[in-house]
């Protein structure tokens, strides 16, 4: 399958060095992780404002559709008898969405200029936070700024736990859908590496993090966002991306075996995020009661991270390398 190395303009999150897919062992579990990682990456890139022609070129040359199909093909083969029937059933719906995107690219997008894609993005999302379909998690189900701050802090905690941070090149918040999906891309990709090189304990840490993040974050607000986006866009690329994303979330919840409590229209709070006085986004990363800390305790990751920090300090004192796997 095609390489999943992020390109310079692609990653909302600046990740650590990722493994070369060609060097990974061939196994169904690894292929499942790589296929899921690719779909998350495609959707993530689709929702960012196009600053240059990189994503438009990716669409026009057909690589978006080609990579999407390749990822679904790999998933179908790798699922085998391990996947649930509901997850397998969603692959057909996802293939139909990719085919619709291919038709749109062939009939319309192949003749687009960058200004056309930018105008379409502004039409749907506007130049400020649109209230019709805001791509920000904290605007859903949080009717108080303190609740918003807690969610933002929990998201930040997940990012910090895995050594990633928001790229300075991307002018978006931590709770933007493209950033959260980029994080899931990273986790799934990290899973593929862990299965080949790190053993059961580290693999479980990454798998459990994915389940937690889907159940408590994207699995809750993204389905409602997709319905709002489809209604607002009505037609065009973002309508198709909304439908693709909705089907993908159904696949993911079935595949991971999690049952989120999705928000409904009555849970949407049309207000912008404002951090309470004296609080920052990062405060939740240090909160011992947040989802991150509970996750680390549940899977034994906190002790592992403490050991790695001590190893780094020792290496630094001895003048040795301080990298990680």
Which residues sit in consecutive blocks of at least 5 with pLDDT less than 50? 1-24, 275-312, 319-325
Instruction: Report the sheet with the most strands, covering strand number, pairing sense and barrel closure.
Output: 2 strands, antiparallel
For the record, the CATH architecture stands as: Orthogonal Bundle
Quaternary structure of the protein = single chain
**The CATH superfamily title:** TorD-like
Summarize the structure.
Helices cover 61% and strands 1% of the residues. The chain is mainly α and 325 residues long. Strands 1-2 form a two-stranded antiparallel sheet.
Characteristics of this structure?
single chain; 1% strand; 2 strands; disordered C terminus; 11 helices; mainly alpha; globular; TorD-like; 325 residues; two-stranded antiparallel ribbon
């Amino acid at each position: 399958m095609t390489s999943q190395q992020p390109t310079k303009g692609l990653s909302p999150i600046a990740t650590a060095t990722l493994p070369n897919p060609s060097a990974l062992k061939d196994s169904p579990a690894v292929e499942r992780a790589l296929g899921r990682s690719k779909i998350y990456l495609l959707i993530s890139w689709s929702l960012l404002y196009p600053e240059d022609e990189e994503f438009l070129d990716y669409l026009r040359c057909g690589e978006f559709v080609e990579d999407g199909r390749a990822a679904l093909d790999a998933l179908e083969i790798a699922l085998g008898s391990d996947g649930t029937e509901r997850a397998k059933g969603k692959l057909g719906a996802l293939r139909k969405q990719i085919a619709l995107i291919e038709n749109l690219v062939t009939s319309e997008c192949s003749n687009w200029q960058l200004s056309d894609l930018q105008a379409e993005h502004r039409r749907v999302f506007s130049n400020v936070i649109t209230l019709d379909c805001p791509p920000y998690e904290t605007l859903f189900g949080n009717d108080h700024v303190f609740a918003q701050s807690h969610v933002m802090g929990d998201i930040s905690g997940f990012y910090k736990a895995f050594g990633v941070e928001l790229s300075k090149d991307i002018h978006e918040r931590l709770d933007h859908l493209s950033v959260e999906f980029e994080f899931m891309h990273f986790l799934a990709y990290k899973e593929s590496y862990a299965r080949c090189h790190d053993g059961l304990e580290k693999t479980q840490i990454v798998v459990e993090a994915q389940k937690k993040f889907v159940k408590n974050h994207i699995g809750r607000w993204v389905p409602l966002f997709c319905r709002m986006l489809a209604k607002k866009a009505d037609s065009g690329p973002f309508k198709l991306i909304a439908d693709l994303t909705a089907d993908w979330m159904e696949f993911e919840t079935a595949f991971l075996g999690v049952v989120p409590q999705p928000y409904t229209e009555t849970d949407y709070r049309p207000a912008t995020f404002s951090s309470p006085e004296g609080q920052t986004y990062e405060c939740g990363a240090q909160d011992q009661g947040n989802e991150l800390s509970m996750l680390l305790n549940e899977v034994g990751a906190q002790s592992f991270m403490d050991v790695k920090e001590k190893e780094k300090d020792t290496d630094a004192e001895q003048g040795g390398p301080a990298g990680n796997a």
